[in-house]
UniProtKB/TrEMBL annotation, chain A:
It is a multi-pass membrane protein. It is found in: Cell inner membrane. The keyword Cell membrane applies. Keywords: Amino-acid transport, Cell membrane, Membrane, Transmembrane, Transmembrane helix, Transport. The keyword Transmembrane helix applies. The chain crosses the membrane at residues 6-27, 34-54, 60-82, 94-115, 135-158, 184-209, 221-244, 256-275. This is Branched-chain amino acid ABC transporter permease. InterPro entries: ABC_transp_permease (IPR001851), BCAA_transport_permease (IPR052157).
UniProtKB/TrEMBL annotation, chain B:
This is Branched-chain amino acid ABC transporter permease. It comes from Billgrantia zhangzhouensis. It is a multi-pass membrane protein. Its main location: membrane. The keyword Membrane applies. InterPro entries: ABC_transp_permease (IPR001851), LivM-like (IPR043428).
């Protein structure tokens, strides 16, 4: 029974991380049909910078912020200087993000080497707390709380603010939204920046769960894509549900069938694609 | 028209002369280049005709390679049977992937093939009992027939060159056939093709399976060339390498993918004297190709020659409409 609780909690931690990674990505995709395939590289960038700052300053908050800002800078630069040149050509934009992802990941390998890096956490955050059913590391509990708060914050912004309404309008129907005077490209730049920032943050906090290594960028990208394909591109609710499904499947498959763990991750996605190609909460284009 | 024939003749002549003039290293490089040219052709068939950029064409090569390694080395089945089964298994995988992807559009197709390809990569990596995991399966060798060792670089070259040229010629015919034109028509205006009564999904599905089979053939040669099958040819790096070669060379033309592979291999050989950052080089090449010459080297050359001779109408230069 203890294993069951442990795997459930691990699944929830994973789901929390996945939600932080994928929520911005799915909105950016819904808005401009641009999928950022450098997302995993931004995660890695945020992670490495964040860990470096934590080591240098000893402050976890500062590290998380620095990781987020590094990824945000990368996202903004890529959007302004590269993606804008091929705006409207969806595939070229996607290919450019692949190229940028490769370059960033390889540059990180040069700077930080191939050794796995884990998050230097203060003792009180590493210590387990009693959750009633079992003891579980405090920091992982904090990640889950953060993801829930982030979800609520994004939901509030999307539902009750003008910007949220503009984003929803843009996701639903880009042309009509633009005709109504909404500056969708500018909005997209903003959403893209937030998505990159979240990827960077996820990179720092996620390092407590998965060490930073070569190849992690591709894994993170895969997981994020799986989440948004399951949930439906452009849907925040979809990202949350997709993250829960993917996190749980990942945790239990690793626990019980480690040989097929990665394979099982893709099973729900494949089923969704066959029976509901637009995703659980996606709209048909 | 005439020039096209001349170019093909010149290339075939060069391929015949190459092993007679060059040393073993150059011949084995040519083997590698032709194998990747097949993979890039497999990619370009979908990208150039349908606007479908696939990141799982190398996966088909990997599936075929693993079938050969597992059946040939683990179970010791005879060579012809192993190759047949490898191609059969690739076809089955292509049918399954095709059914999953046939309805998707450009960007979602890219994401889907990325995910599917990585799923197979994951399986090859984690299913250690069957695939040997990270270390892979070593000792994949061709048989010796009547005193002729098929593993010999030059004998292997003859095999690869024959099959590669045959496949390129077949694809050349395909591009000019009504089916090839239908694929172009689907890329330009899917609705119109459907309204004209063409089976759009079926045509895309057939193209996908055909491209998958070309990838499978590349995989057969790839595994015998390397002598070992490991997860790395199924990784994203290889898929992006092939994509970069096709974009660099010009995925809309027949010879573009081969040209791109040749240029990229030459570039890598050159650069490797100064740095071992291969992925960064690939990333930069892809970035610059998309920004500076999205149609690739082949069409740059074509334009250059056309400007010299009289202008000519072309089917492939119409602009692609935005997706609805």
């Amino acid at each position: 029974m203890n294993t069951f609780y442990f795997l459930t909690l691990n699944g929830l931690t994973m789901a929390a991380l996945l939600f932080i990674m994928a929520s911005g990505l799915t909105l950016a995709f819904g808005l401009m049909r641009v999928v950022n395939l450098a997302h995993g590289a931004f995660y890695l960038l945020g992670g490495y910078i964040g860990v470096q700052v934590i080591r240098d300053t000893g402050s976890l908050t500062l590290g998380i912020l620095a990781g987020g800002l590094a990824a945000l800078a990368g996202g903004l630069l890529m959007e302004r200087f590269l993606l804008q040149r091929v705006r409207g050509m969806d595939l070229s934009e996607a290919l450019l993000t692949i190229a940028v992802g490769l370059i960033i990941a390889d540059a990180l390998l040069v700077v930080y080497g191939g050794q796995p890096v884990s998050l230097p956490l203060p003792r009180e955050l590493r210590a387990p707390v009693d959750l009633g059913v079992m003891m579980y590391p405090y920091f992982r509990v904090l990640i889950m709380v953060f993801a829930v708060l982030l979800g609520i914050a994004l939901w509030l912004v999307m539902t009750y603010t003008r910007i949220g309404a503009a984003i929803r309008a843009g996701v639903d129907d880009r042309e009509t939204a633009m005709a109504q005077g909404i500056n969708v490209p500018l909005l997209f730049g903003g959403v893209f920046a937030v998505a990159s920032f979240l990827a960077g943050i996820a990179g720092v906090v996620g390092t407590s769960y998965m060490s930073l290594t070569q190849g992690l960028d591709v894994r993170v990208l895969m997981l994020s894509l799986v989440v948004i394909i399951i949930g439906g591109m452009g849907s925040l609710k979809g990202a949350a549900v997709g993250a829960l499904i993917t996190g749980m499947v990942s945790s239990f498959a690793t626990g019980y069938l480690p040989q097929f763990a990665l394979f099982f991750l893709f099973l729900p996605m494949t089923l969704i694609l066959v029976f509901r190609p637009q995703g659980l909460f996606g709209r048909t284009a | 028209m005439k020039r096209e024939h001349l170019i093909i003749l010149a290339i075939v002549a060069a391929l015949v002369v190459w092993p007679l003039l060059m040393g073993n290293y150059a011949v084995s490089q040519a083997n590698r280049a032709m194998i990747y040219a097949l993979a890039a052709l497999s990619f370009s068939l979908l990208a150039g005709r349908l606007g479908w950029f696939s990141l799982c064409q190398t996966t088909f090569a990997g599936i075929s390679g693993y079938t050969i390694a597992i059946l040939g080395v683990r179970y010791g089945l005879p060579f012809p049977l192993v190759v047949t089964l490898a191609l059969l298994f690739t076809a089955v995988s292509a049918v399954i992937f095709g059914l999953l992807t046939v309805r998707s559009r450009q960007v979602s197709f890219l994401m889907l093939t990325l995910a599917l390809g990585q799923m197979v990569w994951a399986l090859s990596f984690q299913w250690v009992d069957i695939t040997g995991g990270y270390n892979g399966i070593a000792g994949v060798r061709m048989p010796v027939y009547g005193g002729v060792d098929l593993n010999d670089t030059r004998v292997f070259y003859i095999l690869v060159v024959t099959v590669t040229v045959a496949i390129f010629l077949a694809v050349w015919r395909l591009y000019r056939s009504p089916f090839g034109l239908l694929l172009l028509g689907i890329q330009e205006n899917e609705q119109r093709m459907r309204a004209l009564g063409h089976p759009v999904y079926l045509a895309r599905f057939i193209a996908f399976v055909l491209a998958g089979m070309i990838g499978g053939v590349a995989g057969v040669f790839l595994v015998y060339d390397m002598g070992i099958m490991s997860p790395s040819p199924l990784g994203l790096g290889h898929a992006v390498w092939v994509l970069t070669a096709a974009v660099l060379g010009g995925y809309r033309t027949l010879l573009g993918p081969a040209l791109g592979v040749a240029v990229l291999i030459a570039l890598e050989t050159l650069v490797s004297q100064y740095t071992d950052r291969h992925m960064m080089v690939i990333g930069l090449v892809l970035l610059l190709s998309i920004l500076l010459m999205p149609r690739g080297l082949a069409e740059v050359f074509e334009q250059y020659f056309k400007r010299k001779s009289k202008p000519q109408a072309s089917v492939t230069t119409t602009t692609r409409g935005e997706e609805p």
